[in-house]
Amino acid sequence: MKLFIFLFIVCFISYPLYTQSQDTLKNKSVKISGYIKGENAKPIEGANLVIEKSIDGTSTDSTGFFEFETSKSGEQILLITALDYTERRENIEIKDKDIQLNINLVKTNITTDEIVVTASSFTSGQNSQVTLTPLEIVRIPGADADLYRAITTFPGSNQVDEGSRISVRGGDPDEVLTVLDQASLYNPFIFDDDFNTSSFSTINPWGLKGINFSSGGFSSKFGNVLSAILDLKSYDMPQTNGLFAIWGLANVGLSGSYINKKNSFGATFDIAETYLKPYFLLNPQHGDFSPFPTSTVAGGTLSYKLNKTSLFKFYANYSGDNIGVKSDVPTYSGFYNNKTDNFFTNLVFSTTPSSVSFLSLSASFSSFNKHFNFGIVDNTSKDIYSKLRADYSIPLAARIDLNAGAEYEYSGFKSNGVFPLYFYNIRPTAPSFSIDANNNTGRFGAYAETELKFIKNFYIQTGLRSDYHTLSKQAVVDPRFSIVYKISETSFLKGATGIYHQFTTLNNYLLGGDTLLKPEQATHYILGYEYNRDNDYIFRVESYYKDYKNLVSSSTDFGYLMGSNGEGYAKGVDVFLKVRVKPKFTGWISYAYTDSKRRPSAGQPLLSANYDITHSVSVVTSYNISDYFTVGASLKMSTGKPYTPVDGSVFDSTQNAYIPFYANFNSDRFPTYHRIDLNAQYIFSMFGKFAVFFVAFNNILNNNNLYSYTYSSDYKTKIPLYSNNSRMIYFGIGLQL
């Protein structure tokens, strides 16, 4: 569990309203003040200023005025950034006198600014795309500084079992792909798929310069995914020098970053250890644990600039977890034990072959090992992924850009274990069978797309993608198209359509006889409207329809084998309203209506999909009481998930167990889900260093949200299993070292 890892510390180091008090300075303070202006001497509000490699800085008010104090001395670099303006580096010499500056910034020369919404939270150029800032992520109550949980406060996405894994617009969670610098992240979680235990992501948002979540209609750059893309871009170089430590009720962490004076070499590291026993003592759970959940996360980056236009960047991350959680089923009561080890690495080389083109080459590798046991079940599995990728972009003309690329991905899967012969009897002494299986495949992919801006007030993106799967020996071709019409400076109409394919897991190919399964297919149709006034007032409504074909399902033709007879649809409407009153208040309301139906097996009618969550609402607010004290609150409500109930049973004397008879697939629903979360952060000085204290109150009303149902041994009594996310208090402190 990576609850509130050093993100809060870096959050407030970057927090533009923070300025050091004089009592935190060891040397005499010097005041730096002045004005930041843009074109026609217009004041720039919200420009950020910081002395490079320090936390000394502030932001401008509505008149463009700024003022802060620093104990730095000698020659320094003042870094000034503002939305839509070119970054400026001002050389200053700090002596014993106050400094006054008047600085003019130049507008960024972006050829697509006629159409693309410049606000960081939304981009009209790629339909359905939401961009999150790290500051917003760590301030969302209940998100626990977790990137994926933050995303679920936006319409169209829902948490799986209150954890980090998400489903999007009625699709299954495995229809969502995370990409980091064009490398695929298939297992970016700890405690994933553990009984009644919430997963957490291993991704550090503060190492990311771009966080783009696309819930549909995404670019041809992305293949082998049906529903959604989380596209992440990391910083080429660390942003500062520093060392930070954190202690919390459930974890400790240490992180650091370094960049040399020439800005040619940089390195970061991040290590965190989870220990949940004191957390559970303060926050009693519905379940029992043995052993208590533990995890280790460690990673870092190395960056080296060959010259002004070429860069090598190496990223590596390890995560491991261990847990034993009590689980009760009709034939067995005991601990579900799970242990995983996950390693990911990526090497990227980027360069600009010409003044207007860009080339990126990457090579990535990941290994995911998992061992779990429960009753007679005892299995060890290993997933391996490696990927080579190249991307190239160049403008063909003043208003035509070309993006193209190719990739090869290798996947390997091994499984060795013991499983029950009869699904309804999993006692340790039950009849069983063994599996020792492995499979592998390769996938070749290539794409080309153009971005057209030759018609006034129109932005058009059209692309074509093709993928070939070596195991099934099948190829797919996916055309995609999106368009944006600029109604006014603040209003946009958006539409998109396209075909998306995804080759199913290697485990399913084993069950399907390797070559029997077709690539799953979804066709997207999206139409929406967006109003965006300087990212302070945003209103957005979007309708969508997804048509599914060739979904993996049980096959009546081959008994227990898997087939490609599944089909279905998902349709709905997403609504989003955001208000920001600088510098005090930020809040948003999101609503999603979803109707998602699937055919679970051949010959059956269309029935509710596993994530057919009809209505979901999120309300998020954050308020700055002062420059040092921030509070937040959030509300989440949603229709209960569908599930398949048991409506009868018969006794099997040979197994001394009852055989359940299930009702129609997903014919019942859980009760309505709802919870309210609060948090607060306070900045202060400790030992003359920057420090932050944070506290979170999750599920403050202690709502007993349902995790699942189990049954008595004869299936006559249905027993609710409540989520372990009951009322929880979490607190900690972060300190700059």
Q: Helix proportion of residues, in percent?
A: under 10%
Tally of helical runs: 5
Distance between the termini: 24 Å
CATH superfamily membership of the largest domain, which one? TonB-dependent receptor, beta-barrel domain
Rough outline: globular
Q: Number of folding domains?
A: 2
- Level-1 CATH class name of the largest domain: Mainly Beta
User: What is the mean predicted local confidence, pLDDT?
Assistant: 86
Could you tell me the CATH topology label of the largest domain. Maltoporin, Chain A
Q: How can the largest sheet be summarized?
A: 22 strands, antiparallel, barrel
As a percent range, the share of strand residues is over 45%
What is the CA-atom radius of gyration, in angstroms?
27 Å
Low-pLDDT ranges: 1-27, 109-129
SS-based class: mainly beta
| Shape-level CATH architecture of the largest domain | Beta Barrel
